[in-house]
Model the fold of this input.
Amino acid sequence: MGHLFERFAQSVASWAGRPPAFVFALSVVLVWALTGPIFGYSDTWQLVINTGTTIVTFLMVFLIQNAQNRDAAAIQAKLDELIRSLVDARNEFIGIEHLGERELGYIRDRLEDEAGQGPRSAHAGIGRVLDRR
Done:
């Protein structure tokens, strides 16, 4: 079932990001709006669009999250391979995405310090570049 869901989620997420999906959604809203006078702008008429959009939004959250999780895992695997393939790279960085926020913050701070861009000098160079404009 997991494989079937992944294929379905990928297909829907891919289709939802294309112009035909937007045109379809816009058409549904326009048809709904044009039927307002026919139904006297009743509570039921309003409930139809409210319920429909709520259901679609609720389901799309899960489908899009699945696609984002897969994309993030693929990017991490690619970055891990780059780290592994570089001679001077520190292999200890492979898999750090599994660490907690505090540990990742500590590693980030240490790397910035090593690069000479600790908290006091953070982004001073960028400020100078922006001041030139």
